[in-house]
Design brief:
Largest sheet: 5 strands, antiparallel
Radius of gyration: 58 Å
Number of helices: 14
Shape: elongated
Helix content: 40-55%
Number of strands: 19
Distance between the termini: 51 Å
Length: 592
């Protein structure tokens, strides 16, 4: 992957822009096409599934209403006194009672075309029927349907086919076009007999005839044993495997006759029958696929159109940049007189104008550098001449020192030696970084001179470990702090005081302290000093802030001076310096 990225990044700008533009346009368009197609296919399929589920539920509800109505009729017949009397006694003793009951049953068949026959029979084979005839002398008590009704006398049973009823046959319909309901007739003595009501498949047909699931879809009904109760004339229905409906809880997708179908089922609570809805997935997706083909063709045309636009944009962007690149190459070769002339005020035009300004400024800088070099040479000559003066003073003091030795004036010799040492350290051959040993020597001599000046009112002690003496520090950072301690801390104190100079090391930080036991600093003044150390406010004590600025300039913002003071007790100035080179800046503190 990294190699491919490197290969792409090493191509010419025009190639990268063209590829990026085309990729930026085609990938979203391709994703949009695929997502849109997938979304519509999925939505169409889900819609078909939902519609089929609604239709099967509708059929289940319609059949349930019909069956509930037939069951209510069976309950009505079972509650009639004359029917119970017939089942107990085997006949109706009242004159005309049998004819009345028979007429009622005949009228029920005429009033309800869906009912094909009614049978009332007892265990002793006494029976009364309308639309149903007996063709066998076998005992009714041995029939499975009679046994089921007697076994559960409180429940009405729906049996999907009358083809195996054997003892009784319907006068008008065959067993494969009927289903029937059986119900036991009971009283306090037990089961008196069974009522059987035949129903035609017209009930089911009417429930599903107005249902259309596209052109190839259909609905049919299974019983509890997965036998077809009713189905329209269709070759597909007999290829549906009932096991498919048991293996999966949701919709079933199956390939039948070289075409993909989806099967949805709904179970009727009352009968346990399954209402099965089937629709062709290929039929649903056929029209959508055509729309997808059109969408794909449009997408290809759009990509070609984008390619032409991107080619024009790439050319208009790259050519001015190439022109500017050639001008920069000429300028890099030393020809700073070249200029960019653009036709548009876009970003490339602004870049070209910036190039023109840069070329002019470089020419001006070359002239200024040349002039500055001449001025620097003149300044170096003047500086060399000025150095003669401090060297002359240093040599003169050395001569006075030898003369004082000749007159045995020891105090004068010591004072002059301290002063000359200070001059020597101050000059330091023009270096700004010196050893800590030399810096402490300079500070010691300065303290010696100040002690003589103030009649030994100033006492001092230097306590710095030898291991730190070979470290280097910026020159003359202690003298301003000592001077500050004398003039602001000890000078105004009648009994004078002591200045202590200390040194230590913490990790990569050199810590130097200048402490005095003078008058200290008031809290308000101390607060002002601390604030001023890190700002550009007006400063009263130049030396202290000069040293702080030098340290931060040389070593960074994390280093410098901190001030601690207790009024009328003491003041401590702490310098923090790095021990080695930090970041990419100049070497501040290093081992000699």
């Amino acid at each position: 992957m990294k190699e491919i990225l490197n290969l792409f990044m090493n191509q010419r700008l025009r190639t990268k822009l063209m590829f990026s533009f085309v990729l930026a346009a085609t990938v979203p368009l391709l994703i949009y096409t695929l997502v849109t197609a997938g979304y519509y296919l999925k939505t169409a399929r889900e819609t078909a599934v939902d519609y089929t589920r609604q239709m099967t539920s509708q059929v289940s509800g319609s059949l349930g209403i019909h069956i509930d109505a037939i069951e209510d009729m069976a309950d009505y017949l079972a509650s009639r006194r004359d029917i119970r009397t017939f089942l107990k006694q085997g006949d109706l003793q009242a004159p005309g009672s049998a004819e009345v009951l028979q007429d009622d049953m005949d009228r029920l068949l005429q009033a309800y075309p869906d009912i094909a026959g009614i049978l009332i029979t007892s265990p002793e084979d006494q029976w009364l029927a309308s639309g149903i005839s007996r063709f066998s002398r076998d005992s009714v008590a041995g029939a499975s349907w009679f046994y089921s009704a007697v076994g559960e006398p409180e429940t009405a049973h729906i049996i999907s086919s009358s083809a195996e009823r054997r003892i009784f046959l319907n006068d008008r319909f065959g067993g494969d076009s009927l289903f029937y309901l059986i119900r036991a007739v009971t009283d306090e003595s037990g089961v008196l007999g069974v009522i059987l009501i035949d129903m035609t498949h017209k009930v089911i047909e009417q429930a599903i005839e107005n249902i259309s699931i596209y052109e190839k879809g259909f609905v049919f009904v299974y019983d509890r044993e997965d036998r077809i109760v009713y189905s329209p004339v269709n070759d597909i229905v007999y290829r549906v495997d009932p096991d498919w409906l048991h293996k999966e809880s949701g919709p079933v997708t199956a390939a039948i006759g070289g075409e993909t179908y989806q099967i949805e089922s709904s179970v009727m609570d009352r009968t346990g029958w399954k209402v099965i809805g089937v629709f062709s997935v290929d039929e649903i997706q056929g029209d959508l696929k055509q729309a997808i083909y059109i969408l794909t063709a449009v997408s290809i045309l759009l990509m070609f159109f984008f390619f032409l636009i991107f080619a024009f944009l790439t050319k208009s962007l790259v050519e001015p940049i190439l022109n500017l690149q050639n001008l920069m190459s000429s300028a890099a070769g030393g020809n700073l007189d070249v200029r960019f002339y653009g036709h548009y005020n876009d970003e490339v035009g602004d870049l070209g104008q910036s190039f023109n300004i840069m070329a002019e400024e470089i020419n001006e800088l070359i002239r200024m550098v040349y002039q500055e070099q001449q001025e620097r040479q003149e300044a170096q000559l003047k500086s060399l001449q000025e150095q003669i003066k401090p060297h002359f003073l240093y040599n003169t003091l050395d001569t006075i020192s030898w003369m004082a030795r000749g007159y045995k004036a020891g105090d004068i010799v010591s004072l002059i030696n301290a002063l000359t040492t200070m001059f020597r350290v101050g000059l330091s051959q023009g270096l700004d970084i010196i050893s800590l040993r030399d810096e402490l020597s300079h500070a010691s001599n300065y303290l010696y001179i100040q002690g003589i000046r103030y009649s030994e009112k100033i006492r001092y002690r230097i306590d710095v470990p030898d291991e730190l003496l070979d470290l280097t520090v910026p020159k003359l950072i202690l003298q301003p702090l000592i001077e500050n301690a004398i003039y602001h801390g000890l000078k105004a104190k009648d009994e004078g005081g002591t200045i202590k100079i200390g040194g230590s090391k913490e990790e990569n930080v050199l810590i130097l302290t200048v402490e005095d036991d003078g008058l200290g600093i008031s809290p308000d003044k101390l607060k002002q000093i601390r604030r001023t150390l890190n700002s550009e406010e007006k400063r009263d004590s130049f030396g202290l802030f000069y040293v702080s600025d030098r340290i931060r300039l040389h070593c960074g913002e994390h280093y410098g001076i901190t001030v601690e003071s207790d009024e009328n007790i003491r003041t401590v100035l702490t310098l923090r310096l790095p021990l080695k080179k930090t970041g990419g800046g100049p070497l501040c503190i290093r081992q000699l």
